[in-house]
Structure formats: C-alpha cells, structure tokens
Amino acid sequence: MSKKLCIDSTNSSSYIKICDYLISELKPILNSGKNIVFLCIGTDRSTGDSLGPLVGYKLRFLSTNNIHILGTLQNPIHSKNLNNKLDEINNKFKNPYIVAIDACLGNIHNIGKVFVEKKSILPGAALNKNLPAVGQMSITGIVNVSSSFDFLVLQNTRLNTVMMLSDIISRGIYHFILKSTNINLYHNNSNIISLANE
Q1: What are this entry's molecular-function GO terms (predicted)?
Q2: Are strands 137-145 and 113-117 parallel, antiparallel or unpaired?
Q3: How far apart, in whole angstroms, are the C-alpha atoms of residue 102 and residue 129?
Q4: Which residues contact 124 (CB under 8 A, 6 or more apart)?
Q5: Domains, the chain, ranges and CATH?
Q6: What is the pLDDT of residues 34-67, one digit of tens each?
C-alpha cells in the first residue's frame, strides 16, 4: 500500500479507506505484540486545534491491552505537556508504535482532507513551537488555510470542518480496532454505539 493516503472528509464512506490503510500497516505490528498508541494532539482552547482532542474524546473508551488512546477534551496533549507525555509513554511501553493525530493548516484546496502517512509530524510547527517530531505514522486533518497569521486562523476555523474531520478519523480508527482485536465494543456506552451505527 502507498505510504501516503489522502481522503476527503465530505465523503461519508471515506472512513473505510482509513480503516483499510490502518489494517494494512498496523495489523502486522499488533501481531508482533507491540503496543500502538494513538496520540491525539491539540487543545480545546482553539477551535482549529481541537481536532486531536475531539478524536480522542470519541475513542476514549477503546483502549485495549495493546492499543491505547491518549489525548482527549478532558485531558488534552498539547505544547506544554507533550514532552512529559512522550516520556511517560516511553517509560510505560517498550518501543511503542505511535500514531500522531493533529490538525494542520495547508492549501485552500486541501481544507477538509485527511492525510495518513508513515512519517512523524512536528506539532505546533504552524505556531513556531519548538517541539520534537512525534510518531512513526501520522493522521492530519487540514482544518484551514495557512497564512502569515496562523494563530488567528486557528482561532477562527469553522467547527463544522473540524467535526467532519474528527468524525471520519475516529470512525476509521474505530473500525480498525473492531476488525483487529477481539474487544467487545458493543457495551452500554452511547459514544461507542453511535460510532458503530454511523
């Protein structure tokens, strides 16, 4: 499979492509016994930067023995605590495979698109944050156009765009977990049930 996947979040079935990509790339890692960490990066204090925490919020009950969801609306992972969280992850798990999920600014024609790549990301690059590269794989959603005023752009990003991206990404990951593990996802949690039925 290609090392880079680009999909349009306005297509309601595009989550299937995310799921298929993750199964192709991550199932062998699961089979090896390695831990996979979905690291959802961002903050709920900025609409444009809330993509990661929204994805983490939707998936927060899906952590299993070797699949872990970190970064939610309640406990976001952002520039101020990212280094500490990475230290915690590396201390807890031996050589974990990290999938970094984050919002991104880009070309106007790419707004609303999701990119999945087998490479790390630089969180906070749009705001000139000096943060380490994160992940062996990245899932980024283009929430708005890049400009000379990225901070203001993130603050004035449409919530609808961020929600569409978070829905597609979380559903793709949900179905990957469903197909790759024996976890019983159909319990009495309304968030999990709603993801299954969408």
Answers
A1: peptidase activity
A2: antiparallel
A3: 14
A4: 79, 130, 131
A5: 4-197 (3.40.50)
A6: 999 999 999 999 998 999 999 999 999 998 889 9
Q: pTM of whole model > 0.90?
A: no
Residues, the chain, total? 198
Strands (E), the chain: 4-8, 36-40, 67-70, 97-106, 113-117, 137-145
Q: What are the structure tokens assigned to 194, written together?
A: 């709603």
Instruction: Decide: residue 140, CB within 10 A, 0-12 exposed, 13-18 middle, 19+ buried.
Output: buried
Which tens digits make up the pLDDT trace of 92-118? 999 999 999 999 999 999 999 999 999
Question: Is the predicted pLDDT of residue 148 greater than 50, yes or no?
Answer: yes
Is it the case that residue 155 has pLDDT exceeding 60? yes
β-pairing verdict for 67-70 and 97-106:
unpaired
* Inter-axis angle of helices 15-31 and 159-180, nearest 10: 40
- Sequence-distant (6+) residues with CB within 8 A of 31 are none
Q: Residue 31's CB: how many other CB atoms inside 10 A?
A: 9
Assess contact for 49 and 71: CB atoms under 8 A.
no
Q: According to the model, what pLDDT value does residue 108 have? A: 93
